[in-house]
Write a structure and sequence with these properties.
6-stranded antiparallel β-sheet; 11% strand; alpha+beta; Glutaredoxin
Length: 723
Amino acid sequence: MNAAHDNEQQEEQQAGQQANRLAHETSPYLIQHAHNPVDWYPWGEEALEKARSEDKPVMLSIGYSACHWCHVMAHESFENEETAELMNRHFVNVKVDREERPDLDEIYMNAVTAMTGSGGWPMTVFLTPGLKPFYGGTYFPPDDRYGRPGFPRILEAIAQFYRERRSEAEEQGDKLKERLVELAGFTSSNETLETGLLDKAYAGIAASYDATNGGFGTQPKFPPSMTLSFLLREHLRSGRQTALDMAAQSLAKMGNGGIYDHLGGGFHRYSVDAKWLIPHFEKMLYDNALLLGTYSEAFQATGEPLFRKVVSETASYVIGEMLQPGGGFYATQDADSEGEEGRFFVWTPDEIKAVLGDEKGRLFARYYGVEEGGNFEHGTSVLHVDVGLEPLAAHLQVAPDELRAIVSEGRRTLFDHREKRVHPGRDEKIMTDWNGLMIGSLARASRVFGEPAWLDAAADSMGFVLDALHEDGRLMHTFKDGRARFNGYLDDYAFTVSALLDLYEATFDPAWFAHAEALMETTIERFWDPEDGGFFFTSDDHETLIVRSKNPYDNAIPSGNAVSVQNLLRLAAFTGRNDYRDRAGQTLSLFTDYMGAAPGGFGQLLCGLSWYLDKPVEIALVGAREDDTTRAMLDLIDGTFLPNKVVALYDPTGDGGQVGGRAGAGGRVDGQVGGRAPDRIPLLANRPQIDGATTAYVCEQFVCRQPVTTVDGLAELLSINPQ
């Protein structure tokens, strides 16, 4: 049933159309364009050689399968015979999936932003045969509208400009290339890394806070996961209550808003308004991974029941709808179904009453803000919660328990009814970086909430990544239709290393740790800049592009440099290796000025700086994994918001220290990779048990306080007030 109607429409459009070169690709986005009349090429030597030999400019079109406006432009322009004829006559037309080639997307998005002041998708960039950009934009309408010239007029003008004023096109391309090289270059600051930078960053973030609706700035609003994680850490560091309040209010507003799917769980991409009410309805794996992690941390910090509910429902959505059998998470779900954005998700009062009955339907619709006339298109409404259940029950003169039961039962019933609708399309490619984000968040959430099924899904998925996307010690970027493709990027390595460390701390199987350490070494070997420090986005043996970028900014996903900083600091805490810590410090120094000037774009790096300037806690436990005291100590640690810590455990009763977990799921990961835990992880070395009892060591830079054998003793060492 998944996107059946959309598939039928696509088949009708394809009837009589000969497939172009995109038919042989694995990207669902590229395959969607395989029957366009446009003579599309995938990015590659065939297209680039044609541009050089025929001296034609390249028209580069970049988008992704869940992008609503990408579908709009495809229907209006790329399926249009006359527009396609113009494209084919004047240009070599190249279609790129930004999720497969984030290296190209980053370079040419920077170019478009430099030219126009903004960017987005679909992205349209015109390049010289030498791949230098000289004109670009985002969505172009089929004729003059929205204050933008029509796409055919753009095509004619660009072709004429290139033909008659070639030197100007080359000059513009040279200038833009110089600008791109400047953007990729960073110089270490002479300033000392100190807490004043955290104070400055906090002030900058607080200045853009929307005190009414939560989040930052105005519409559109994207979930600011990394910034909120920094605010949670800033509250812990400085004691600022406003930092916690901003994070908690934002998460509550999002969790109650229309950006959250109140029936199926999970978050849509972003809100078009300031109130988190009307979303763009695509669901991205990375958004849900990041929010899963941030809501878990916020629950640790606050105990707010809404945050537990959001985590549970989001995890259920991801495992139920985005998990490939055998492990590995799919990339995205579309915004559209049956040719309309959001159709799958929205309701009218009459539809709800028809399913739940008049009275229950009336109360359910009132709770979720579904009214006559609607808040979305065609009189429909996006479910959201404006008023808490108990205040609304009092206003409606209904017992709170009765309204709670109606809402709970109604959600299940409407979800089942919604399942009969035509589902949005799903992009079923497996992406290493996004899987790393989701695996790590599920592993951490499983510790916070004691959900072994989440850990199983995370471990099985990492097993899939290491089996299908890991070759000769290197990572590949995507997997689809049995094929792993594209050299791994920095984000693939950074997010996978982070997830492996999360799996280690959830299972204490040294195999996960061994894989993390090995991939960190590969990251340093292949991506580290030995001259200026920091990590390049592409490896040293990657395809040569017009610039080799080094990106510290958080965009939709965290910066690979920022996550690598945290990986290095975590590994330093486990191993005592100062070279790891030194590289982290060098990377932070490289981007110091930017963190202070634009902190909203550096939430993840600020989290790394917070760790670097803190005295991270190193916790070593020695004892039987299933011992009651061991379990109680882990519950204490996992239930407390202590982000700047590492936890290691050695079970002397286990086989070689292999204790629980699913690192060997499906036979994909050899448990013996890890060896004995104390031999693999120096933090555990020379830590004897006291009188055969579970023993906890709390250390800073490998200098440990007196070990303890009770939960209360551990709580005292960690300055935790056990509940």
